[in-house]
Design a protein that fits this description.
The complex is a heterodimer.
Chain A: H1 6-10, H2 28-45, H3 47-50, H4 82-118, H5 120-135, H6 138-149, H7 153-179, H8 183-190, H9 195-207, H10 209-232, H11 243-250, H12 259-289
Helix pairs in contact in A: 2-4, 2-12, 4-7, 4-9, 4-10, 4-12, 5-7, 6-7, 7-9, 7-10, 8-9, 10-11, 10-12, 11-12
Chain B: H1 4-30, H2 36-41, H3 47-57, H4 63-75, H5 89-124, H6 129-142, H7 146-160, H8 173-207, H9 210-217, H10 222-260, H11 265-274, H12 278-306
The chains are: A mainly alpha, B mainly alpha.
């Protein structure tokens, strides 16, 4: 089978080895990603402290105003402050990143651990299921599921969870096949530990790294997906401030009031970059450790 | 040369895939909350029509019988009838599929045309300014949602500069390419980014390989080494990536078509969702999944033809 691991597709070539004396605990890529995401998390947790206006308040004296000191990101056709709306949307979009990936990470990891440990016929069956799911166009399936269940964030989470776990399971299975043959696993078996303990306490922590790196990419992808559905009217519903919804709000004003759509897009790109940098940095650090 | 055993094995793999597609598309419509039929029909139809549709869909029969009926109908090319426009779903899809396939095809070609030269520049000037700039731009491109890229290109090149039409689909081939250029470019960005990244590291690996040293030692011209040895080997991994990416690309086409108002299956999908036209949604999901799995199959076979090691 030639399906490519998402990891191989998404991660760059390994960084050049750093001279021993200059080796740092955290790579600069990792730190840059972490800084962006910590700031994003603060905006999501305490939007009221950063947003200058109420994100849903109409102000008919400030309709379609360009960026200024009063409205750094401008205002929309109802006079709502774009900066405030973009900040409040952090809460929704980071929630999409988290809730859209939480079930896949946990369930995929557990399935991967069981399948990888038992192997044999179970792995063969699992392989066929993975092949079938991977050939399904992911976005089309998610849109179809949301179409049937109805628009909204909760149904979006269900839709991405149904498919998303497969990628984690695949990574864990591959890693388990290597780990369970190593000496420490044999030692744990000789010590008479229970299978559950060997799998959860010994093998899993060592097999998790690839899945963790992929989790970062996945959260970025999930924001792209969530905002795309929001843009199409199938995700978060207005007047909720969500980046995709905000961009859709401004799409008819692109020629005259570009700021309505452009700034929320910048927030998406920045957050995506944060996750990518963190993931890349994490991958480099794991490689260095090995 | 293609290994016959591999081809047969790979062709047989399409069977469970199709079975899975059937099951998923069958189940999807049954996920509808409440009585599926009243939900499907809404308040647009009379009771008699509901009963007729119920018999047509076989919703009064046991689950397994329903599934067998469904499979039989699909096998004979019957995907039901649209609630909204009252024509067979198969006809609707076959009308709307060509723009989407053309868009996706153009995007793939554009992505390859963008990725190959840039990957070479990047790999040959590794860690220098050009490499950093190219990778930086693609990293940003990879973090941008498709609809956002589309909206920006549309505003700059269609609305402001008026170089391209703001949307739609042309009447003849030349006009179609012209109409689809910006949408295809939009769709190509993320694929180009993934291909570029992969191709760059493949080229770096190949450049360090012994057979390239040998070619250099033989005194072959760098241009020939790059073309014959480096490019061919680096392309194998690109072809391997294309298959899995086609699904993503078709999904992106759904969104791109909404941004650029292209009358393809993506627009049909979104319109059907707003119109709660479930037979169309079901048929489209199936058609797109089948298209993707066939392209997947084609790229697997192509890859095996390029690289005999794959078929072992």
């Amino acid at each position: 089978m030639t399906a490519i691991d998402p990891i191989t597709a998404m991660t760059p070539a390994p960084a050049k080895p750093v001279a021993a004396g200059r080796r740092r605990r955290f790579s600069s890529t990792f730190l840059a990603g972490a800084a962006i995401l910590i700031l994003s998390a603060l905006l999501a947790l305490f939007p009221q402290m950063f947003a200058p206006y109420n994100p849903t308040a109409f102000d008919y004296k400030a309709i379609l105003k360009g960026p200024s000191l009063a409205h750094p990101f401008g205002s929309d056709n109802f006079g709502r402050d774009i900066l405030s709306r973009t900040i409040w949307a952090y809460r929704i979009d980071l929630q999409i990143a988290l809730f859209g990936t939480l079930f896949p990470v946990i369930f995929g990891t557990l399935v991967g651990a069981v399948v990888g440990y038992i192997g044999g016929w179970l792995e063969a069956v699992f392989g066929r299921i993975v092949d079938a799911i991977v050939t399904f166009p992911f976005l089309v399936l998610v849109i179809a599921i949301v179409a049937v269940l109805g628009p909204g964030l909760f149904n979006l989470y269900i839709a991405v969870s149904i498919v998303g776990w497969v990628f984690y399971a695949k990574l864990i299975v591959a890693e388990f096949k290597v780990q369970k043959r190593l000496d420490y696993a044999a030692a744990a078996r000789v010590m008479g530990y229970s299978t559950g303990r060997i799998v959860l306490r010994h093998l899993l922590p060592n097999a998790m790294t690839g899945a963790l790196v992929y989790w970062m990419t996945d959260m970025a992808l999930c924001i792209l997906l969530g905002s795309s559905l929001g843009y199409l009217g199938l995700g978060a519903q207005p007047p909720t401030a969500e980046w995709g919804v905000l961009i859709a709000d401004g799409k008819n004003y692109m020629k005259t009031a570009w700021w309505i759509s452009v700034f929320p897009g910048v927030a998406i790109v920045l957050t995506g970059l944060g996750f990518s940098l963190l993931g890349d940095g994490l991958a480099d650090m794991m490689r260095a450790k090995q | 040369m293609l290994n016959l055993g591999f081809v047969v094995r790979r062709l047989l793999q399409i069977i469970p895939t199709f079975a899975f597609i059937l099951v998923v598309t069958f189940v999807i419509v049954r996920l509808l909350p409440g009585d599926p039929l009243s939900a499907m029909a809404g308040d647009r139809v009379t009771d008699a029509q509901v009963l007729q549709a119920k018999a047509e869909l076989g919703l009064d029969k046991p689950f397994i019988v329903q599934f067998i009926d469904f499979t039989e109908r699909v096998a004979t090319g019957d995907l039901g009838r649209s609630f909204v426009v009252q024509i067979p779903v198969v006809n609707l899809i076959s009308q709307r599929l060509p723009p989407t396939l053309l868009l996706t095809g153009m995007a793939t070609v554009l992505a390859i045309l963008l990725a190959i030269p840039l990957a070479f520049i990047s790999a040959l000037r590794r860690d220098r300014a050009a490499d950093m700039a190219i990778r930086g731009v693609f990293q940003v491109g990879l973090s941008m949602p498709v609809f956002y890229i589309g909206l920006l290109l549309l505003t700059v090149f269609s609305a402001q500069l008026q170089w391209f039409p703001v949307g739609g689909y042309g009447d003849n081939w030349g006009d179609r390419f012209y109409h689809l250029f910006l949408p295809a470019l939009t769709l190509a960005m993320s694929l180009a980014a993934v291909l570029m990244r992969n191709l760059r590291s493949a080229i770096v690996d190949v450049l360090n390989a012994e057979y390239v040293d040998f070619a250099r030692a033989k005194g072959l011209m760098p241009r020939i080494i790059l073309g014959r040895h480096v490019l061919r080997n680096a392309l194998i991994s690109t072809v391997a990536l294309l298959g899995p990416m086609v699904g993503t690309l078709l999904g992106g086409a759904v969104i791109t078509e909404s941004v650029f108002a292209i009358p393809g299956v993506g627009r049909l999908m979104i319109d059907s969702i707003y119109g709660r036209d479930y037979p169309v949604i079901q048929g489209l999901t199936m058609a797109l999944a089948v298209v993707v799995s066939l392209i997947f199959l084609a790229t697997d076979l192509l890859q095996a033809a390029l690289d005999p090691r794959v078929a072992k």
